[in-house]
Amino acid sequence: MTLQVERPPSSQEPKPHTVPHQRKWTDYFTFCTDHKVIGIQYLVTSFMFSFIGGAMAEVMRTELATPNPDVVQPEFYNQLMTLHGTIMLFLWIIPAGAAFANYLIPLMIGAEDMAFPRLNAVAFWMIPPGGLLLIVSLLIDAPQAGWTSYPPLSLVSGQWGEELWILSILTLGTSSILGGLNFLVTIWKMRMPDMDVYSMPLFCWSMLATALLVLIGTPVLAAALILLSFDLLAGTSFFNPAGGGDPIVYQHMFWFYSHPAVYIMVLPFFGVISEVLPVHARKPIFGYRAIAYSSLAIAFLGLIVWAHHMFTSGTPGWLRMFFMATTMIIAVPTGIKIFGWCATLWGGKINLNTPMLFGIGFISSFLIGGLTGVMVASVPFDIHVHDTYFIVGHFHYVLFGGGILGLYSGVYHWFPKMSGRMYNETLGKIHFALTFIGINLTFLPMHPLGMQGMNRRVALYDPKFQFLNILCTIGAYITAVSVLPFVVNMVWSVFKGKPAGRNPWRALTMEWQTTSPPAIENFDEEPILWAGPYDYGIDTQMLDEDQSVDELLAQASAEVN
Amino acid sequence: MNIPSNIVTLLIGVTITLVSLWYGQNHGLLPIAASEEALQVDGIFNFMMTIATGLFLLIEGALIFMIFRFRRNEGDETDGPHIEGNVPLEIVWTAIPAVIVFMIAIYSFEVYNQMGGLDPMAAGDTGTQEIAHHHSPTGNANLIALDSNGSEIALGLGSSPERAEDQTLMVEVNGIQYAWLFNYPDTGILTGELHIPINREVNLKIKAGDVLHAFWLPEFRIKQDAIPGRETQLTFTATRLGEYPIVCAELCGAYHGGMKSTLYVQTQEEYDQWVQSNTLAQTEPLKESVATNPAPTSQEQFLEPFVEQMGVEAETVNQLHALHHEM
Amino acid sequence: MQSSTIDESQTVLNYSHDADSASGHHEHPDLRMFGVAVFLVAESMIFLGLFAAFLIYKAMIPEFPPEGTELELLLPGINTIILISSSFVMHKGQSLLKNGDDVKGLQIWFGLTALMGAIFLGGQVYEYTHLPFTLATNLFASCFYVLTGFHGLHVTFGLLLILAVLWRSRKTGHYSSEKHFGVEAAELYWHFVDVVWIILFGLVYLL
Ligand code: HEA
Ligand code: HEA
Ligand code: CUA
Ligand SMILES: [Cu+2]
Fold it and tell me: What UniProt keywords are attached to this protein's entry (chain A) (predicted)?
């Protein structure tokens, strides 16, 4: 990965320079096949749903401020809890990962679009109906068996709500598969001629791993849900013990997807962090290949650990031991990433702006979630804390502390590219501070709660747990408030922010070589791979001190034309 | 790269180690441990907590340090050093976590084995296999739970390999939407609360009547799902007198949160007395004891005595049967 | 810009250019077959999931299929032979097109394939209507209907693909030895359906 300015093959004659078209705002509401439009569509839609899922969480937390079920009925609580989990996972964090993938992959690899643009648009347009099915179910008879929907409970607690849930997940799952297919083919086959796999940005590596998991895992969930549908509607009993079926089979099929799914949720943001940190620390990523391969290792291991969600279920002892061992090994590739990121920061020139703050916040909170993850992987300890608030604490730390903080980091980092304008740094920092305090206050007390004996998915609990629950509730309110500066910042900056220019961060990955926002065809001129994605610290030695990346770029393209 | 002098590194390392060791023992996060096995679980948790504290301090400390030490100066537009990696360092931070998780896994295996989780295998030569051979009434063998001899492997916790299996108290546990029922086959007692004598091994055979439930004893650190159509078990020995909560830990419907009961660990005398008074009560007309009427149709009556504890209104309990679908 | 060899047909997998593109980009090769193959990997995971469930039930339940739900072998056996041979018939049509630009040959052999597929489906419907048990009779019956039914759905879809290819092939020049994505995709899909059937037949009827 050295500085290389290559003249493209002579057959490619310079094209007449066309004035880049700009998007009309109406394009964002149509079946548009431009990957950048689709990326924004994914991002905005997923945030819309996050407000709904988040509002549900706030109602739940309000209910849990007191031991009695006085704010909402227990039954309604369960519906909120089910929809909150489902919306947050399938309508916020997974589509948000797909948003970045859509927006960034073609730009990063110098392609003009995805491999199958129309399929891409189809994948996006399955999200709103899928989400609406869930929301509509609130009016009819919402599902109330948890996001895991274990039978037999899911078979007896409201037929139509459950069926709507199944249809929604099948729709969203299909969308996910079509998206994954596109990412895989695009990354694998559409890199610009000079870019080998080791000069790809790490985000592409992590999306490669994600796409593989999506393609292998999601169809199995579809199979499970098809069978569940038959049990629900056609009177079969695949999972119904009353007719000779076995609920444990469902659990195996469900978790065969849903464990890998947690890596589907977090791997894209591992990729985002690998992009954000080097840029704002002005240092190459530490251990490129180790971080690239650890994504694949996580994906592979992620496929063989699913029964760690079933340690107290119908899993015989020796299987529990097997799954404990495989689960714990995941700490090794994940640790490689964490340490690699820390080493990237070490000795750098850290610019503590909003993306960087969220990036560091990501490492610090994901670490907590990961460490509790290894704890619950230990069978004897998991037997104690399974299905308690300890688990709720664990997964919010990895999901919010990992996924969502990474998501915010990426949103701020690429905001100038997507909108062409800078966001407001002060509001961004307020957003970070409130979020970081809020989530830690919400989710840290959940760990002692769980260990002390508070089970999850309850609307009523023992009064002795009230104090810690109030802390959680206060934290949840702070998190809700934190959304305000974020939304204000985004909306205001899109219209009024100061123009960003091509490359405000002086970053080296390809997406920064084009205009902000990028032209419809992505690059006005043939993009040039003139440096590795993380070659920070070279230009200062080899070239004039005051020559910025922008100028270098201009010089490079002048040489070519 | 700017590595602090050896002395400072050493001091930091020693401090982190000491703090972790101390915190790992003094976190105060776990409730009372009422059995030998619970103490072992606490042992593994403390061990993991020590490691986690160490890693937490190391990494969070490094992050905070870097935020201050490696801040970019205002106006400095240059890059940091061009360091792309360091293979020996990367090998170190791959190997150390690998060793750590290996240790955690071995330790967990040991504890789990002590708790009786691998009972049939561990007991293969001592001949205490009966526990594993109770066939569930439907005749289903357990899912992928067949060993090469075709005999079943326990689902749940069996006897600890070290404990001579004599005089185990058997109790049949049945979870139904929103209550636990306990049946003592030796004495014919049927109750809604679990009474056991101290220092005697207890073996619970757990079943479910409608949907999934999970039988959890927080002070004993043990939990096992109750699965309709299949039998699971828990074995434990209480070593501390007192009353302990029994909690249902698997979502089982709207009043999942109210599905609680109490475990009484009593001295042998107290226990015998309880057995006696209850065997008498059971021979009298059934209406005395709420728990002797487990027919699903009488859920509301059954739950009435628990309404106080559950903190729900009487009417909401009455709504239960509307909720309780025919299974 | 060199004109692409891509067939601008109406499939969703179709690579399309924005109308307003005056692109100066290198043309990437046709990736649609690669896409179809990746898609089939995902599809096969659905079947794998269903087969795994079936095998677990089989291992768990001593008598599987239980009495009264045993299956007849003759008709499904004939059906299987028809379906497997149709794969070869289809391949013949495809190679005629590829090697000799023989659209007529393609039509004949694909037509034959479609006919065989239809016979297979007909046979399955006949079997369904003559079985002594229904979807909810017992676990085995449910497995049987869901597995074969889900596969039947795939056969139907494959059949529609073949018919679409036949329909399009009426236009001269639509398919040629250089332009045959639709033909190849339909064939790959059909082979996939065929392989799934072989496994399914082995599991449900023979095991
Ligand atoms: C983004 C989502 C995400 C991620 C990344 C993870 C990551 C991990 N999870 Fe988590 N998990 C969930 C989401 C996630 N999880 C959810 C949603 C549930 C609950 C589902 C439900 O029931 O509703 C769950 C539940 C869950 C369970 C089941 C608990 C139960 O229900 O009883 C288990 C058990 O093993 C587990 C383990 C792990 C492990 C070992 C990791 C590992 O990947 C973590 C690895 C990371 C680290 C370890 C930190 C960094 C590493 C180092 C610094 C190196 C050194 C470290 C050591 C040597 C320890 N998780
Ligand atoms: C990415 C995933 C994700 C995220 C981000 C969150 C975010 C939050 N979660 Fe959630 N949670 C899950 C995934 C997630 N959760 C899952 C999978 C479950 C398991 C479900 C199950 O058991 O089946 C769960 C369960 C769960 C529980 C346990 C329920 C139970 O077991 O009984 C609780 C309890 O406190 C909780 C709380 C919260 C809170 C307070 C937040 C907060 O951080 C939320 C912060 C709020 C916002 C981000 C939005 C705020 C905005 C507004 C209030 C404005 C509203 C405006 C309009 C409507 C226009 N969650
Ligand atoms: Cu029974 Cu929860
Ligand atoms: Cu998992």
Answer: Cell membrane, Copper, Electron transport, Heme, Iron, Membrane, Metal-binding, Respiratory chain, Translocase, Transmembrane, Transmembrane helix, Transport
Q: Structure pTM?
A: 0.88
**Cβ of residue A437 lying under 6 Å from some atom of ligand 2:** no
More confident residue, A316 or A449: A449
**Ligand 3 pocket by Cβ (under 6 Å):** B 175, 213, 248, 250-252, 256, 259
Instruction: Answer left, alpha or beta for residue A313, where phi above 0 means left and psi between -120 and 50 means alpha.
Output: beta
Contact between residue B247 and residue B218 where contact means Cβ atoms under 8 Å apart: yes
Closest CA to B296 of B184, B203, B174: B174
Q: In what order do the strands lie in the sheet with B201-208?
A: B189-191, B179-184, B169-176, B201-208, B232-237
DSSP helix/strand/coil, A380: helix
The residue of chain B nearest to residue C62, with distances taken between CA atoms, is: B140
CB within 8 Å of chain A, chain B residues 6-65: 29-31, 40-41, 44-45, 48-49, 52, 55-56, 59-60, 62-63
pLDDT tens-digit series, residues A461-478:
999 999 999 999 999 999
The predicted complex's ipTM stands at: 0.88
Amino acid identity of residue C115, one-letter, is: L
CA-nearest residue, atom 2 of ligand 1: A262
Structure-block tokens of residue B8: 């400072």
- Cα separation, A457 vs B152, whole angstroms: 33
Q: Which two tokens stand for residue A537?
A: 């610290």
Helix count and strand count (H, E) for chain A = 21, 0
Closest residue in chain C to residue B230, using alpha carbons only: C60
SS3 state of residue C46: helix
Ranges of residues in chain C with a pLDDT under 70 are: 1-28
Which of A9-13, A427-431, A493-497, B82-86 has the weakest average pLDDT? A9-13
C61 Cα to chain B: minimum distance (Å): 6
